[in-house]
């Protein structure tokens, strides 16, 4: 399966149907198309979602940097869109992606690596890439 | 794999590590343990997450009803916890669950059934259960 962006007439109605929160954001989950692993949760504003839908490359909104965050632009760890799904009340989006490398800024494949266990939190995976090699000067 | 709740001394440090947002909430993703399908995204406050961790049954916080939402209490569509994972910056939680029946109040298995396609949004699945049979008088 490969992603086909909507035709230009269909993009605006899709975006109009989305219920962004009071900060103008929608929660976005990224899931691996390979094996269904949930990779990360991030946020999108209108422009980030519009860009993701149009280009087929995941673009989020960085709340810490207050700017569009084209996933992998610095680190190379891009997310190619396979499918984009809105939920029943259109206030969350699920991206099914082909993940290049790792999703997490710690160098792990998934951000969800801290498991609640009998004795507290336990790491479920080690970094696959040293974080300091992921980013040159700009941070995640 | 079955979920084992933390011992009582370990629960408080786990909860203390969570970064709830300015509304006191954390985003919670539910994923099927069976096949990895992402079922829904909801929200938890401190009490909901504490209850989920302690009991092994998913409990959310309903923003519309401003109260704890014990998933399935009305509909019977419960979520038994298999694993609970926090993400790298501890502001999102992933629940891996055994879902009884369907997760979505529309009667579909997953809330993420509206796919962005070439001609706009397309439903990827039909309801498995008529919504009116899911709820008696109280709503989702």
What would your notes on this structure say?
The structure is a homodimer of 140-residue chains. The two termini of chain A are 30 Å apart. The mean pLDDT of chain A is 94. Chain A has a four-stranded mixed sheet with strand order 2-1-6-5. A two-stranded antiparallel ribbon of chain A has the order 3-4. In chain A, strands 7-8 form a two-stranded antiparallel ribbon. Chain A is globular, with a radius of gyration of 16 Å. The first copy, chain A, has one domain (8-134): Phosphoribosyl-AMP cyclohydrolase (Ubiquitin-like (UB roll)). Chain A is of the alpha+beta class. Chain A is built from three helices and eight strands, in the order αββαββββββα. In chain A, β5 and β6 (92-99) form a beta hairpin. The A-B interface holds A 4-7, 10, 13-14, 17, 27, 29, 31, 35-38, 40-41, 53, 83-90, 92, 94, 104-106, 108, 111-121, 124 and B 4-7, 10, 13-14, 17, 27, 29, 31, 35-38, 40-41, 53, 83-90, 92, 94, 104-106, 108, 111-121, 124.
Write a concise keyword list for the protein shown above:
17% helix, globular, two-stranded antiparallel ribbon, alpha+beta, 140 residues, homodimer, Ubiquitin-like (UB roll)
Describe what is shown at a glance.
2 copies of one chain form a homodimer. The first copy, chain A, has 3 helices and 8 strands.
Q: Indicate the low-confidence ranges of chain A by residue numbers.
A: none
CATH architecture of chain A: Roll
Radius of gyration of chain A (CA) equals: 16 Å
Question: Kindly, what is the distance between the CA atoms of the first and last residues of chain A, rounded to a whole number of angstroms?
Answer: 30 Å
Give the assembly state of these chains: homodimer
Tell me the β content of chain A.
25-35%
The level 1 CATH classification of chain A is Alpha Beta
Q: Which shape of chain A, going by the Cα principal axes?
A: globular
Which class best fits the helix and strand makeup of chain A?
Answer: alpha+beta
Give the count of structural domains of chain A.
1
Of all chain pairs, the largest interface belongs to: A-B, 44 and 44 residues
Q: CATH H-level name of chain A... which superfamily?
A: Phosphoribosyl-AMP cyclohydrolase
Biggest pleated-sheet summary of chain A: 4 strands, mixed
Number of helical elements of chain A? 3
Can you write the helix and strand succession of chain A as a string? HEEHEEEEEEH
The total beta strand count of chain A reads 8
CATH topology of chain A: Ubiquitin-like (UB roll)
Helicity level of chain A:
10-25%
The largest sheet of chain A has its strands arranged as: 2-1-6-5
Overall pLDDT score of chain A: 94
